[in-house]
Amino acid sequence: MRIRPLVADTSIAVALTTVAVLLGQESTRQGWPELDAWGYVLVALVNVPIAARSKAPLTVLLAVHLAWIVYVTAGYWPVVNTFGPMLAVYTVAALRPPRTSLPCAALMSAVWIYSGMVSEGAAMASVVGQAIGFPVVIWRFGHVARRSAELARQLKREQDERARREVAEERGRIARELHDVVAHHMSVISVQAGLAKFVFASDPATAHAALSTISGTSGEALEELRRMLRVLRAREEDDGAPDAPMPGLARLGEMVERVRAGGVDVELRVAGTPRQLAPGVELCAYRVVQEALTNVLKHAHGAATVVELRYRPHHVTVSVTDDGEGVIPDRVGTGSGHGLIGMRERAKLYGGTISIGPRSEGGFAVRLTLPTSAQAAPQGDGAT
pTM of whole model > 0.85? Predict the structure, then answer.
């Protein structure tokens, strides 16, 4: 990539030198002295430095214009060597700010006027018009090219920043998914393992049931983790969606049974007519209920808990409330843990509202409302 601009500039320099030499053959027909050896040397000095224009635009411009002044002073046809200085001015305008490129364009105008002054029979009005018009137009093209390059670089930076934000958001979403899966299932397993150890000798049937719950819960957790890994692999390889479906509201009953088997008194209530919702909405509601029940397992194992799901025409509401019995005060968080943050972020993502906090009559409640219409827009979390 570093060689290509040099090759391009060298090719341009060779092309300009060739054109100048061929044009110099017409000097005598235009009433100007024929190019001699010194004239050809000056033609080369004006055009060959263009090969280094990208690396040292200002140096090249000054060298080209100096050689052009010597060429004009020697009495040769000025038109022969106009292309090199024009390209040098364009290059400076395309690579340097206006405070640098404008004086360079003015230098070209001055040399152009000087060539008219030292030429016999030159129409100065035409010369001055050309000396102003050509540098202005060339500088403008270079300036526009510079602005376009800056905008392209800015767009690239914004795209890179947007990509970094999207990656960070995706990592956060995956972290929330892992938190929900691992925290819930490990809480159930921990409770059941403690129960099995406690009644292992005195009540083998209860211990066996607890171990069965541990087996089923761990298997479900592994399945969800495998599903998430398939999601990640599918995104990396772009080979389609995973085979296993995302958990949804239809599996709330399984979750409640699993928590109930862990010794928590949980009741599931469903109001309204169940219907198919968008997968993201169902997953959001499922994860919020899962996190709320996980908190009950951790902090209020003896509380009577109600999970209520209500289907309404344009939204769905889920709530998890407990009566506060059996709360372990030392384990009650401040409301800023990863699980609660994840609930709020999920609600915000799908344009819903969520309230999280203690109830006036005692206990704790999590209430989530999600819009089910396609026109729903994010509203913020409305968390308390």
Answer: no
